[in-house]
Amino acid sequence: MEKFMHAIQFAAYKHRFQKRKDPDQTPYINHPIGVAHILSNEVGVNDFDILAAALLHDTIEDTQTTFDELQQEFGPRIAGIVAELTDDKNLPKAERKRLQIANADKLSSDAVIVRLADKIYNLRDLNRCTPVGWSAERVKEYFEWSSKIVPQLFGHNTQLDTILKELFLQKNIRFD
Ligand SMILES: Nc1nc2c(ncn2[C@@H]2O[C@H](COP(=O)(O)OP(=O)(O)O)[C@@H](OP(=O)(O)OP(=O)(O)O)[C@H]2O)c(=O)[nH]1
Ligand SMILES: [Mn+2]
C-alpha cells in the first residue's frame, strides 16, 4: 500500500504540467488514475504492483522520468512493466505505431493488462470528445490501429477483452 500511495504521489508530480488533448484541457494525471481505476474497480485486479504500474505507465514516455529512477523508487517489477509499455518518442509516429503492433506478442502478462486498460481509457475518451485538432478520420484511425494490436493481447483477462470487443463492435470495427 505504501508503494502504491508513493506511485500516486510520484505520477501526479511528474505529470503536473501536462494536460490531456481534450477541449477542457483535463489534467493529464486523470488518465493514469483512470487506467488504474478500470483495473481495480471494473476488472477486480488487486495486485498493487500492477495498479502502481498503471499509475506510472506514461511517466518514462511523457515526462523526464528514467527507468533507473523508477527502479530505485519502485523496484524492478513495476519499473519493468512501465519500460515494456514505453514507446520510443525519438522514432517517427508511424514507426512507433507499427512497433506497438509488431511487438504486442512480446509483452509480459502484467504489461498486457495495463496496455489493455490504457486502450480502453483512450477509446472511451475518444467517444466522450474529440481531441483538439483531430479530424473524424484521425479518430477512426486510432480505433482501427487499436483493433490491430488489442486482439493480439486477448486471453489474459476475459473482462478486459469483453469491454474492448464491445467498444469495437459499437463502431462497426472488425477485429480478429
Ligand atoms: N483519446 C485521447 N487521448 C489523449 C488525449 N490527450 C492525450 N491523449 C494521449 O494521446 C495518445 C494517442 O494519441 P496519438 O496521436 O495516437 O499518439 P501520440 O500522442 O503518441 O502521438 C495516447 O497516448 P498513450 O496513452 O501513450 O497511448 P497510445 O495510444 O500511444 O498507446 C493518449 O493517452 C485525449 O484527450 N483523448
Ligand atoms: Mn496511456
Note down, in words, how this protein is organized.
With 176 residues, this protein is mainly α. It has a single domain (1-170), classed as Orthogonal Bundle (Hypothetical protein af1432), CATH 1.10.3210.10. The protein is 64% helix and 0% strand. It has ten helices and no strands. The termini are far apart. The model has no long low-confidence stretch (mean pLDDT 97). The structure holds guanosine-5',3'-tetraphosphate and manganese (II) ion. Guanosine-5',3'-tetraphosphate (G4P) binds at residues 20-22, 31, 58, 61, 93, 118, 122, 125-126, 131, 142. Its cofactor is Mn(2+). ppGpp hydrolyzing enzyme involved in starvation response. Pfam families: HD_4 (PF13328).
Brief summary of the model shown:
This protein has ten helices and no strands.
- CATH fold field value: Hypothetical protein af1432
CATH-defined superfamily: Hypothetical protein af1432
How many domains in all?
Answer: 1
- What's the CATH class label? Mainly Alpha
Please, what is the average pLDDT?
A: 97
With helices defined by DSSP (H or I, 4 residues minimum), what is the helix count?
10
Strand content: under 5%
Which radius of gyration do the C-alpha atoms yield? 15 Å
What distance separates the N and C termini? Answer: 38 Å
* Helix-strand topology string: HHHHHHHHHH
The kinds of small molecule bound in this structure are: guanosine-5',3'-tetraphosphate, manganese (II) ion
How many beta-strand runs? 0
**Percent in helix:** 55-70%
CATH architecture: Orthogonal Bundle
Largest sheet: none
Spans where pLDDT lies below 50 across 5 or more residues: none
What structural class should be given to the helix and strand makeup?
A: mainly alpha
From the spread of the alpha carbons, the general shape counts as: globular
